[in-house]
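Q: Hi! First time doing this. I have a protein sequence and I read that you can turn it into a structure. Is that right? Here it is:
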Amino acid sequence: MHKKILPLITAAVMIISAQPVCTFTADCTDIPQISAKAAVLISASTGEVIYEYNSREKLPMASTTKIMTTLICLENGGLYDEFTVDSEAIKVEGSSMGLQEGDTVTMYALCCGMLLPSGNDAANAAAVRTAGSIPAFAEIMNRKARELGLSHTYFVTPSGLEGEGHGSSAYDMALLAREALRNETFRSICAQETMEVEFGAPPYKRRLKNTNRLLSMYDGVYGVKTGFTDEAGRCLVSACERGGMELICVTLNDRCDWEDHMSLYDYGFSQTRLESVSLPPPGTLDIVGGTEEKLPLIYGGKRVDITVSGKSPELEFTVISSPFIYAPASSGEPAAKLRISCNGREIATVPMYAAKDIPAAPAEKKSSGGKFRRMISKLRKWLF
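A: Yes, that's right. Below is the predicted 3D structure, encoded as structure tokens:
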């Protein structure tokens, strides 16, 4: 009798122990054990991978899709233009910001409705307003994904409700969040626990609540987006800052997402450090029609810091400017920008200014002599 019961008891114990347990241990330096089907933790500044698990596997990502939808709408402009929502677009299941037929809204309000209460109605209304139809907007989403190098991502809907082939990888979603957070309006919206916006017929003030509980659960979290469907499970994209260091975390199909993100952040911040970027000498720009041929430059803006975990990354520096400028030049006026990149992805741009005054040359010198010929030579090189 006992021999027959024992295997059943053993099997039950194995099934119970196989289920992930949602636990959170503060200040852990060991690699955390998580319950997600896929996960990644990256440096927000460089994109360096600090932790990953199945991070390149394409999976459904539910409403974290709205990161892309919101970014495209913000970049499209016209955020405060009022319009009436498309009555068919807002007839969608799932989470909602409360849009009704005939409501007057702004694109800004729809972006808030996507990022906080995760409104599927807001995503559809924004897509139709931007592109004329949901399929046309999906084409824009996929074009943007290709531009960002999201190689395991395909969009069918603006909301994240499943469509044939709709999905992404944890790594792609981290790169997408990194790009979106460079948009100041996006970053400001997704960091809010609640917001007050106006919409309706006529518009009146409403209070929206963020579904991202991590904002109040863990110090330093400032975004980004939650998601859930039966197929995708619980999905979460978050971002966190500590001591000037910034990390982005993504988990897909994770029943313990809040706890896993907190554990991953404790691990990540224990493995990273803040480094100040050493900028190259600012150099000079060609200047024509002045008393000198070279305009010395100086850097402006604050120091550029990056979050790294391993060896210091190889950075690329590119000066963005016109081939030359015309005199006169005044000290302190904008002249160029220095783009800092890592692995082909921009980290920051640093403004560059004129380091001194260079007045225009006297009229008779502009039209004669070697300086005029050299100016023509430079112009020909630039044109041809």
